[in-house]
Amino acid sequence: FWVEDKPFRWEDAIIYQVLLDRFAGDQDLESTSPGRSPGERHGGHLAGVLRHLRAGYFESLGANVLWLSPLYANPDGLWTGVEGGEKRYSSYHGYWPVHPREIDERLGTSDQLETLVTEAHRRGIRVLVDVVPNHIHSEHVYQTKHPEWTADSGCICGAQDCPWWREIATCWFTPYLPDIDWSAPGVLTQSVDDMLWWMKRFNLDGLRIDAVPMIPDFVTR
Length: 221
Fold this sequence. Notes:
The protein has about 220 residues and is an alpha/beta fold. It has 8 helices and 4 strands; from the N terminus they run βαααβαβαααβα. A 4-stranded parallel sheet has the order 1-2-3-4. The chain is globular and about 50 Å long.
């Protein structure tokens, strides 16, 4: 329970969004890291966020909520973007999950996330984590164990023959990010359980749900 002088309202919160790979690592990150393209990982992690939390950085800005980018394990290597051509994009952002309940080791450990949440709470700062229920990566464990949980191949969002306004409910972000088929037996229960696992396991204060406009209303409701 939170015991506070003034009742907390999410509507009044000052939220600091942290894209973990780009915030801070063992050292602070520059806006551009020498020798690394924008699509590659730059080395930020949970320990870097904790270092700034302990230094009072977020409190000095008046922030009382941290919104962390997705923590799921994500694939290795570089991948092709929607524009085609050479492979130039890594999964630094965290939105290509390959496991529903594992922290990407490049971002840190369960112990580090527990410590970050605990110390944030001591400072009166709540913690949200981004979750990604709309799609999975082609290397996701569910793609192997439950191939029936992903939708039939859809058009690629934003392509000339696949405009967002018309195909947003069925289009895929890329060919290697299949949408979840919410009509498949068992998928809704499992997806909700996976999201709630993050809250319960790490004592989080809430979740930010990615790609809500692309998910059927009955799921988000």
